[in-house]
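Quick one: structure tokens for this chain, please?
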Amino acid sequence: MPELPEVETVRRILTKHVVGKTITDCQIFWNKIIKYPLDSKKFIKKIVKQKINRIDRMGKHLLFILDDYVLISHLRMEGKYYFTLKDEHGEWQHIMVLFELDHQFQLRYHDTRKFGTMHLYNKNDYLQQAPLNKLGYEPFDEKITVSYLKNAWQNKSQPIKTTLLEQNVIVGIGNIYANEILFASKIHPGERTKNLVDQDYQNIIDNTKLVLQK
């Protein structure tokens, strides 16, 4: 599953190609990818004629900031975006959503496992809606302190690796980087979260930044 660094890389690449372009049409080939509150028909009706003004990221989510809406895209296990010329060859059996862009370009969402999700919300309240409203802070946020982690984790009996994978305290960490962070912090992945001491919390904070930056 793409974690914070991979999703950030996708965001930067897409920004170069699609920001400033307008969605002129949209086709959905796997309706289940479109999540509440919209069905596929309403999703298409709202997103067509919207300009892509910028692309942000929160944790593992891509945020396409449009004129009136925000498209929240979660790649999950296998999601990928392809920026192509119109009618360019592609693996159509795995293309779930096709965005037609102006100047004969297309943005294709490709997902072999079909686990990805898309939400479309109004710009004025998307941060209060699922899935963003339950996310914690970015790993580089100054609000991530020893006291913050202790307050959130000190009563958890589950393994610390499981705790790191949850997205409600620190976002963007998945299986691969959780392993790297704990190895660098000299903490066994199976250690009970409530057994951590202040230095463990500080090591996790420091090594999360180092590992993700690397």
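Strands lie at 23-28, 54-58, 61-65, 69-74, 80-85, 95-101, 105-110, 117-122.
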